Structures are given as C-alpha cells and as structure tokens.
Amino acid sequence: MHRFTVLFVAIVAFATSSSPALAERPVADFAHLPMIEAPSISPNGKLVVAMASIAGKQELVIIKADGGGLQARLPVKDVDVRYVRWVNDEWLIATVGVEIPATGGMGLGTRLIAFRTDGSDAHFLIDRRDGGAGFSMADVLWVARDGSPRILLASQTSFYLSDEGFWPNVSMVDVATNTFSKLVWPREGVQDWYADRDGNVRLGIGIEKDGLRYRALYRASNKDNFDEFANVRRTEELIVPDVILADGSAIAFSTRSGTNAAYKLDLKTMQVGEKLFDAGAYDMSNLYLDKEQTRVLGYGFTDTRYRTVWIDEGRKKIQAQLEANFPGKLVRIVSLSRDEKVLLFKVESPSAPGAYYVFEAGQPLTRLALENPTLGTRALAPVKTVAYKARDGMDLTAVLTLPAGVDAKNLPVIVMPHGGPAARDDESWDWWAQFLADRGYAVIQPNFRGSSGFGTAFQQAGAGQWGYRMQDDVDDALAYLGKEGIGDVKRACVVGGSYGGYVAMRAAERNPDLYRCAISYAGVADLPEMIKYDRNFVGGLGTTEYWRSRAEDLSDVSPINHASRTSIPILVIHGKKDRRVPFAQSKTYVDRLKKAGKAHEFFIQPEGDHFFSREEDRLTFLTQMEAFLDKHNPAN
C-alpha cells in the first residue's frame, strides 16, 4: 500500500453516497473550478506551476511538490493566461493575451510575462530600445538547457504592415534582466521562425512578394547565412517542423494520408519523407520526446478517449507501474523533471473528476490535488461512446452519459453539441453532462461532421454546412436514442455553448418540433456581424474567409434573422467580458426575440468570460439551466 501525502487543498473524505437516481447532489458540487489546471513541474522536480482555484477565481500559483503547500501566487491581472513554461528553477514565463489600442480599433495581442518562482518579481518582456510594439510578442522558439534564464523570442515591433518591424525579429533574451540581444533581423514576408535544441535559428517561413508561393529561409547554424527558396504554392499544405532533433533532423505533422500523422522533414528542401507514426483512423495530436530532444518516446491521439502510445521501453515500464496503482483508471504522465526522475501525472475517468499525483522512485506517491475536492474521485454517471448514422448515411459517433442507478429506457434527453466546431467530445470528465445526468437526463454529445480528430475528410465534410447538415447530424443523435429505446424523443432539450449555443438557437427556429426547449451559452447568433467584429480586432480570432466558408448564405443560417420563427422557449446566457463571442451576439438576438413576442429568458453574467474562469459563473449557469429545464423539460 502506498502512503498518500495530501497538499495544497483540504481533501474531503471519500463518502459512499447514494446514487444520483436516489438523491440529487447540490448544484455547487458540480460548479467547482478545477483546483488545479495545466500543472507543470520545475526542472529540478521541486515545484509545480499551475492555474489554481482560489476564492472562486483562477490564479497562477507555485506549489511545492514535496508536500510543503503553496509557495507563491503570481500576479496576473486583466490578461488571459494561455501558456506557462519553465525557463529554469528560478524563472518561468507566461504567454498572455491582451487587448491593444490600434488604428481602426482594438487588437488582440500576445505578450510574455516573466515570473520569479518565489513571487518577488514579475515583468513584461519587452525590448525597450525598439520603442514600439506589435500584436505578436510571445513566440518562444527555444529555452536554454544549461540552467541560465535565456530564451529565444520572436516578436514584432510595429503594428503596421508598411513598417519593417511588422515582420518579427528574433532576440536572445535574459528573462531575469529583460535584456535583449538581436540575432535575426526582420525579413519581409517571413512570419514564423524555428530554432533547434541548441538555440540555432534554422528556418524562416513566409510568403513571396507575388503572394502566390511560400518562401523559406534555411541555415545550418547561427554562424551561417540564410539560403532562400520557395517550392510550395499557397494552395497546397504547408509543412513546417514540429520538432528539430539533436542530430538536425526534423519531424512534422501532415494530413497528406488523410489523418494527421508524423513524417520526416528535410529542412534544406522542406520535402516530406517517410511516415514515422500514425494513429490509424484518428489524428495524432502529440509527440513526446526525451529532455535532450534526441528521440521520440511516444505519441498521443484520441479515439474514444485520449491515448498515449509509448515507444520507449523505460517509459512503458513506468506507465505500467503507475497504472497498477489505479486499476480501471486512465493514467496520463503530464510533466517530468529535467532528469526524468520526478513525474507529475493525472489519474482520471470519464465518470469522475481527476486527481494529480507526484511520483519519484523509492518515494511514496504524493497526491498534489483533487480536481474537484467535493466529489473526490468517486464514480458518478457512466459514460460510453455510441455509433449512429446520419440521414445521408455518414457514420457518426457520440458520447452518451446516462443517469446512474436507473434503467436506460425512455429517459428524458439533453442533446448537447460541442463548441468549436473544429473540436470533439470524448470519454472524459464533463461537468455539464455529469450535472444533467445527476438530474436524471440521458445526455448525448454528437461528434457531427466538421468535428476534429477523425481525419481530414470528416472535418472537411462540415465545410459550408453550418445550420444545414451539421445541424442534421445533431438532430439525428436524438433520433438514434429514440430508435434504441434509450430516450424519449418527446422529452428533449438542446443545450450548447459557443458553436453549440449557435446550434441551440438554430434548432429553436429551424426544427422546433424536435425539442421542448433550447439553452444557449455564449452562442453565435449573427454570422455576418462576426465578420465585422473580427475586422475591429486586427489580428483577432477569425478571418472574413473563415466566416464566409461556414455556409453559402450566412444570413440564412443566422438565428438572429429568424427569431420570429422561434416557437420553443429558449434560455440565453452570456458573459459581458466574453472576448471570443461578443456579448452583443446574445443581446441583439434576445432583442429580436422580445420584439417578436417569443418565449425566452436572458441571464447576463456581468463578469463572465467565454471559458467559465469564475466559479460564481459556473454556479449561476447550472442554477439557471436547472430551473429552466424544470419548467420546460422536467426529468420527472
């Protein structure tokens, strides 16, 4: 038996409560922010950086991995933390998203913040000698492996295309002193730079002046000059290196065989060689390397759930040891120390929140934190993947969550399409689905055409199909439940967020006969208006071409233009601080519903964003949803 050391959070006892069919759990149990998210262990294995829940809000923190608890809360205000990376044992960097005033509107930009791990220092990394700034100032190409606080940073120094500084330069940066030493000057058209493990800027990718072909600049080391060549038309797939190994060879992901797979890449010619790894019918998503970047240890992909395939025998052995302690659970190695002797791993299940642990050979396992301290790791509603056919014969899958302790027959239904739409659902913990199953609903999450992870053809099948065949695929998931006798198709509601919110709005006017009600969280109601929004945010989250490719007639598939046809009650929830889908999308849509005299409820989250980064917003969302469903599609 292992001794478990508990730190950072007070862990509740593992209670053996009755099933959800007999007693509903409090709403707050499901609304908890994850106690930690995206943790990463320091090079020496002594500290962990993570986003953590403190007083109902997410903060960036440093935790002691040896059981000592919280070391520091790192100051991050009014920015979106996107990625955190260790530089050495004393310093780390965070990529953050910020709003930037620019000519013609606001810009969504990226910046780097450097933090000392004891919390005593935090500063933006900016080369003050340039006297300017651009949208992208956080492209980290390389981090020193000798323990020094050095990185290679590619960054713009101007917002304006006419300026040389619009094209990124590359500097060696000392993150402790904010000292910049320029290594590569801007090259017109070159937008992306790539470095090897030793800090050599080897490759630059850009566009030729005629705009018809990509250009590439290559050199063997920082001492050499760049050779320029261009051999890829912009209409073709551009293959760029994902990994440059210690021997100078490169590996790149490509979809040329129909799914995302790993190939050899010749950096001198940008020619793709032999396929190294693939995941069969599914897209590969990750490559795992040793710390010296000499070889590939394994890769990851998702079929019904995330899988790691280890090639390295040593890593296979460690994985087997960890799994032996948690039979029936998915064990995933998340981060390792520099010497790979200290491992941070997650134990998870589709039916239960996860938990993070630290492992070191010869030492007892240390439980770092439970994802949800109230629910612990107990199994709740069962989850499985089901297969069904769309009305046009396309093979589809969906994730089905069923209430525990009851027969899966003739149940009330929640159809819950995912956001994206270039995303997917799998067998992993989902606090929306588990909450709804706890209330007695069968929850089906369809992976409609256009979802990612199933290969190029499947994703491209969604091109131009917003509101049409993609919508049919969602409706056909409900038909599947009826055919199997699992769900009562006359007691169904459609619920979704972001693109899923769009689907809910569209369902309310396109085919309201299928659903009793609809719930939209942060949904897109007006596609042409999204084009205008992205124009205001130079360098923003989408492009005119992206939105115009969603459907042949964007106005026709925009729910805002068909509010008068809506004939089922709809609940609309949106946060005022949403930067992904503007609050005005829901506000204007609700105004149209009101003018047309349609049944609706509108709940505004004044501090809410797109990602539920505040526990209060999670709680009010679930509470409003439950009350609405009790009125319009009760489970009992």
TrEMBL record:
InterPro entries: AB_hydrolase_fold, Pept_S9_AS, Peptidase_S9_cat. Keywords: Hydrolase, Signal. Residues 430-632 form the Peptidase S9 prolyl oligopeptidase catalytic domain. GO terms for molecular function: serine-type endopeptidase activity. The keyword Signal applies. GO terms for biological process: proteolysis. Residues 1-23 form the signal peptide. SUPFAM superfamilies: alpha/beta-Hydrolases (SSF53474), DPP6 N-terminal domain-like (SSF82171). This is Putative peptidase. It comes from Novosphingobium subterraneum.
